[in-house]
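Lab notebook, bench 4. Continuing the backlog of folding jobs that were queued last week. Each job is logged with the same field layout so the records can be merged later without manual cleanup. Today's entry covers DUF7041 domain-containing protein, a 255-residue chain. Filled in by technician R.K.

JOB TYPE: sequence-to-structure
TARGET: DUF7041 domain-containing protein
LENGTH: 255
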Amino acid sequence: MDEEKTAAVSAVNTVSLAYFKADPALFFAQLESECELRGITSQKTKFNLAVSKLPLEAVQEVREIIISPPKDKPYYKLKEELVRRTSVSRQKKLSQLLHEEQLGDSKPSQFLRRLQHLAGESNEDGIIRHIFLQRLPPAYHAVLAAVGEDEPVEKLAEIADSVADLTSGCTAPVSAVQTQEPDPLARLLEGQRRLEARMEDLERRLQKVSIHRSQSRGRVKAVSKDPMCYLHRKFGDRANYCKPPCSFNSQQGKA
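JOB STATUS: finished
OUTPUT FIELD FOLLOWS
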């Protein structure tokens, strides 16, 4: 037992555990991993170690348990109550998943993991995939559209991370006056729009050139074959009117 106490004291002094208000179970998973590595098995020792590492906001949630620890399994009781009292409800998680969660400044793979965490046990790949792709900026869509539909959503997230890494290397010049740097994805999207506009303009020009050449060849053939309009060519002097250009004259009709 003395060795366990020594390990616990060492853990208090050296172990740094992250506490996430929205996911307290993760804190206890980290703590239990540290206890296993250090050979700590006592419920009371785990309880004391957890209390020493919890932030003030978490301690206040389980105040009565800390002040009067239960004699039977104090660590499990502390863990159970803190998780129950502070975890986001299932309904809230689903609402956040369906309506609130956005990419923000996160990498696509981080965003995907948040969605999967919110989905919890009902994590259905089809739903997560749809929400993930729907909430990515348009700049990602052109790249991901070329990926096969059979690829898992985790693979799509990796590819999207690569796009994010490429765009993050573009930095704006530093000026004397601090200005807000444009969003890299917005710059990528703007570049894509400009490229598409240039391609459309080039296509329109090529079409005009093609039409002009086609019309020119038609006019040359028509003139060289028969310079008269259709009406004079068919009815001669009896034509009621003439459609220029036409080389017919009344002398030809009399002849």
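OBSERVATION: The chain has 14 helices and no strands.
SIGNED: R.K.
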